[in-house]
Amino acid sequence: MMVPLDPMGPPVVNGGGGGGGNGPNGAGDTSGVANSYGIATISTNASFRRRDDEYRSKIMGTTVRNYAEDDTNGEASTCGRILIFLSWVLVVLTMPFSLLVCFKVVQEYERAVIFRLGRLMQGGAKGPGIFFILPCIDAYARVDLRTRTYDVPPQEVLTKDSVTVSVDAVVYYRVSNATVSIANVENAHHSTRLLAQTTLRNTMGTRHLHEILSERMTISGSMQLSLDEATEAWGIKVERVEIKDVRLPVQLQRAMAAEAEAAREARAKVIAAEGEQKASRALREASEVIGDSPAALQLRYLQTLNTISAEKNSTIVFPLPIDILTYFMKSKEAFVPNA
């Protein structure tokens, strides 16, 4: 049995096999198979028709839209040519007074973005120097390319270790693309300043207090990269970011000062103990040397007298040798028993 699929008409079933005929009086098995294939064929044809209709509607809709856009662009270009022609006529008729309006000058650090009939002119920004505009149909905007400084006001930030600090910074930026800074954003400078404040708060909120106090250069570099990447679409180049000051609460300052003072005192005590330990070792070594050589004690005695006399003191202390005292003590012990 063969079932041809006709997308534009009803299905045609050709029966075959022994004892069967073409018509409703044929074999029951053959008619059942034919009916099942007919149902499948009808559903397939319906899906094909829907797809064809959708495809035709898409093609026709796109064509209609393209024709409409072409008509609109054609009308706009025609009107634009007429207005440009009339503007030139006005310039010629009012010569030379029109030259005062048509010729403009921008400084070395400026650029002029020109709009003709509301559209950007080809060639990008004009300047520096003199440039020409048509009256009534051209408008231009001056863009300053010099580096600007923005002093970020103090921002109250909660650090990662739950400490409230006040941080302020300085951002240095400039306009790198005059056309993009005018066409892509309403106010590039205001947007950059707001983004700088937000970036400062977000960056400080992900850091611990000791990192903010000790890693200012690293934090400034990460802020500069983040701001530069975000403002590239606005025609802004962030050159540098510097953190000015980090203000801590008064109670926290006192606690940190007390902690630092205690740490310093502990280190001082450790150093003094180490010094006494080294001094005692040195004295022990000196006593061992003097004990081995009795003449060393006499030399030390003479050296001490020399040091005292060099300071011009009126009092001189003469140490009494221990041997003499020992002799007198022995004599007294010998005298007492005899008595």
Characterise this structure.
This protein is α+β, with helices and mostly antiparallel strands. Helix content is 57%, strand content 17%. It has 9 helices and 8 strands. The chain has helices at residues 28-93, 99-102, 178-183, 188-205, 209-214, 216-231, 250-292, 294-310, 322-338; strands spanning 103-106, 110-116, 119-120, 129-132, 138-144, 148-158, 164-175, 236-247. The strands form 3 sheets. Strands 3-2-5 form a 3-stranded antiparallel sheet. The chain has a 3-stranded antiparallel sheet with strand order 6-7-8, with helices on one face. The protein has a two-stranded antiparallel ribbon with strand order 1-4. β2 and β3 form a beta hairpin. The chain is rod-shaped and about 145 Å long. The protein starts with 27 loop residues before the first helix and ends with a helix. 12% of the residues are buried.
How would you summarize what this structure contains?
With 339 residues, this protein is of the alpha+beta class. It has helices spanning 28-93, 99-102, 178-183, 188-205, 209-214, 216-231, 250-292, 294-310, 322-338, and strands spanning 103-106, 110-116, 119-120, 129-132, 138-144, 148-158, 164-175, 236-247.
Order of helices and strands: HHEEEEEEEHHHHEHHH
Strand content: 15-25%
For the termini, the CA-CA separation is 160 Å
Radius of gyration: 51 Å
**Low-pLDDT runs:** 1-44, 58-69
Notable traits:
rod-shaped; 57% helix; 339 residues; alpha+beta; single chain; 9 helices; 3-stranded antiparallel β-sheet
